[in-house]
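Assemble and predict.
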Amino acid sequence: MIALDDYTDIVGKKNIDQIRALARLSEGKKVIMVNSTKDGGGVAEIMHRLIPLLNELNIDCKWLTIEGDEDFFNITKDMHNGLQGDKEVFTQKDYDKYLEVNRKNSNNIDLGDADMVVIHDPQPLALKHFYRNGRAKWVWRCHIDMSRPELPLWKFLRKYIVEYDASIFSIAKFSKSLPHPQYLIAPSIDPLSDKNRFLHKTEVEKILRPFGLPKDKHMILQVSRFDRFKDPVGVVKAFRLVKKEIDCSLVLAGGTASDDPEGLEVLEEVKKEAGGDPDIKLLLLEPKSDIIINALQRKADVVIQKSIKEGFGLVVTEAMWKEKAVIGGGVGGITIQLYNHRTGFLVNSIEGAAYRIRYLINRPEVAKRVGQKAKLFAAENYLITRHLRDYLALFSILDNPGKNIIKV
Amino acid sequence: MKKKEKLNFFDSISLLSPTGQKAGNLKEFLHILEESEDKVIFHHLYKSQMKSFEKMGEYPNDFANWAAYGIEDVALAEKLANFNPYDFQKVSQARERLAEIIEEHMWDLPTIPWVRPGSEFYFSSATSIVLPMDIEVGNIAELRKALDILPDSSLHFHFYEERKRNKDKEHDDFSIWIEDNFDGTDRLVEEIRKIDFYFFSLDEIRKKIIHILDEYLQEKN
């Protein structure tokens, strides 16, 4: 079991002391976090580490998930896409189903005497509607790119968002005009998890041996769910452009999540685009493949995340932590991680992605310099300890509504 | 002989709070700026030093950086960068001057250009929790040592934030404490107050203060 003190060597004693001081202000508070899955995806990964750390600091934090059938998760997947700007049409029947599942879950989820309830993403958003008389403060934590949501969907969901006491977004760009306070909390990675802990070169080789990856070729990597917003087809197209000039290989490694029924469909589209090229490897990874992802990210010569919509892009942070100069789509949270020539590179097209891949392969010294700065930047801004501190600050702020400065 | 009081350190931990308002061109920006609460202006003008170099960009406040990288108007960025918000006693006065600079600049523009989608300016404020730390110092050598372990947020609080938030303070906490408690420190106090602090990142400020204190302590010994 990893404890808060285990992070001292990474973030320094002053950060750990700061967290402990802040935690004392909320000791004994009861917090419930609710989302839709415990497996797969960035949210679940964060919660697996954040919640034990909160409990270690004497915050009584519980993590609950809602239950729903396939229909419900298809609707919420479409909602996720619609909030990220995809054209999605919802019928009244869809909305009724969504509300009905939320209502049923509200019967099963016992809030007890919780002080705060944090609801993650749109799936359980309407739960609050069915708990009108609770004493708890309710916070909606939105992890997705809400910069341009579909208007009818936004109008429907907004009715339920405004019932909350506060909202949290990952970056300012996603904030909306709302009648309650909004806060910014960027997500984070855990530097001690299997996905991010240090691996020696020999360990990397050993882990990757079963996959038969092409040797003696520059390896380009994208790790992401097979999701259209991550544009894996665009990555294959960019790879083709690069391959005209440089002998290289592409690895697309994708996990799946139980609330993501679209994944296999997108995988088929990617296979079609790859057309049997032996230099393109598609790895469909199980949810517990963290150590493999770690090894892939460390092995890669170039890491790309060519998203066309992105909540935050923790996979970018993971590669930055491993000193990679990441090439990322200039969208969502990627734009607050990658600053051109300083912490990485932003691209806006297939051609741009191809150009930057060639640029970094041909300039390993630039890749090294930017990668080193990227690691420092990730350490300062996007590690789990900062995330923990932000949540603790939020708890104190919710306890002091309307105050701009809280003097202890 | 001056009284000898200890200096107690505080930490100031902030959470950003977007207002939900955004500006896509200078006209919109000016309108929102004029309507914004002081805490919003305070955040964008006075808290930029809390950002690391990579995030901060080239200029010392959020508005100047948006002018440079958002609307891509470098001349305006330069004007906003050269504007020192610490020259004004009240945040509202800084806001008024800022509005004048933008208005004058717009007057000379043939058209008001829009930013590219995604490059809008998003207005935010910050809520801060100020809490006492377990650090206190009784002499200048101890202050020097404390600067090695002080978190950035505490350094910002004592060196920047307090002189703006606390109307009785014209200077940073360190030089005030030295001046109030130690004889023969006029030059040291002056050296610290001479730092052109608005143009430095926290890292640079920390190094500068440490350097000044080290020189003083060496001379004294």
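Chain B touches chain A through 33 residues (CB under 8 Å).
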